[in-house]
Amino acid sequence: MLARLTKAYPDWGPTLDFTTPLELLIATILAAQARDERVNEVTRGLFRKYRTPEDWLRVPQARLEREIHATGFFRQKAKAIKGAAQGIVDLFGGEVPSDMDSLIRLHGVGRKTASIVLGAAFGVPAIAVDRHVARVAERLRLAAPGPDGPEEGLRALYRKKDWVRVTWTFVLHGRRTCMPTPACPRCPVIDLCPYPFKTR
Q: Is residue 198 flagged as an active site residue?
């Protein structure tokens, strides 16, 4: 299945623009409930101005809210960015940590954000579950029972070295084909899919 998805989506990989782990962390926070394209437009200017956690801490809250307004939920996101930056400075000497337990200690950083940073910025095997990954895993009956079912099911099924590829091929499959109303006729794994409400 993964081989087919990889062939169908050869452009798999993160779509947020970044050059450092800190930039990816900030961009991922901003990407909640926002399109990656919009986030990239916003961060293009931000990342030229703010390069360190201390830079993000120095910018006034109101100004940061204005600068990220286009990504939506700007008040919550500004607080999360500042909280994460403070944690990076206070707990990790100004460097973004490269392990799950440390990353999720940062304000506003959950497993999904941490997994994206680990996989894309540090090359650490991780499966990031967003709504697209969860939908695909559940329709293909790859999710284990429980609230963490998609991540647990995929981790059990695939080798660690493939976890990052699983994340991004499932994301693209969920965005382009296995949408809430799926485009089943063009699905590369339709013969493997037990989802009962296929479209024609």
A: no
What would the mean pLDDT of 22-42 be, rounded to a whole number?
Answer: 98
Task: Give me the catalytic one of 112, 160, 161, 198.
Answer: 112
* Chain-centre distance for alpha carbon 185: 27
Cα 75 from Cα 137, distance rounded (Å): 32
> What is the distance between the alpha carbons of residues 2 and 93, in angstroms, rounded to a whole number?
39
For 2-12+127-192, give the CATH class.
Answer: mainly alpha
pLDDT in tens, 148-167: 999 999 999 999 999 999 99
156 φ, ψ (degrees, to nearest 5) = -75, -30
Of the candidates 77, 130, 148, 162, the residue annotated as catalytic is 130
The residue ranges of every structural domain in the chain are 2-12+127-192, 21-121
130 part of the active site:
yes
Write the pLDDT tens digit of every residue in 181-190. Answer: 999 999 999 9
